[in-house]
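Backbone-to-sequence.
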């Protein structure tokens, strides 16, 4: 049996690979310091967005909730907000109306494209009258 610390690092790495970060993931200090042969792993606390993404990953949804993708049909970039009936629900990064897209028409969005859309959204918001 591998040491609990090694298992925690393996889990942390696997979650990171799926785009999920649990900031409080660690070996439970009480059972880790005891003679208990199987120390507990403390998953810790996370915000609701991380919990939604974790649930999406566990359900095997591709792409997972909260990731940014490009709709190859028209080049729009959106954030995955759900999966319904074989379609992926997307929210535009720069704001606007949500849309559904077949899962086969999506590819991961490049980080610089997502940043460009986020800057466009911030610039638009800054120009709005108050």
């Amino acid at each position: 049996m591998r040491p609990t610390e090694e298992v925690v690092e393996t889990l942390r790495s696997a979650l990171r690979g799926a785009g999920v970060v649990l900031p409080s993931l660690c070996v439970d200090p009480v059972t880790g310091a005891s003679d208990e042969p199987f120390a507990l792993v403390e998953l810790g606390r996370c915000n609701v967005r991380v919990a939604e993404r974790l649930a999406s990953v566990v359900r095997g949804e591709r792409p997972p909730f909260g990731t940014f993708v490009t709709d190859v049909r028209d080049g729009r970039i959106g954030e995955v907000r759900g999966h319904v009936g074989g379609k992926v629900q997307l929210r535009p990064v720069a704001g606007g109306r949500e849309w559904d897209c077949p899962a086969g028409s999506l590819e991961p969005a490049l980080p610089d494209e997502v940043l460009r859309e986020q800057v466009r959204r911030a610039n638009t918001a800054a120009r709005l009258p108050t």
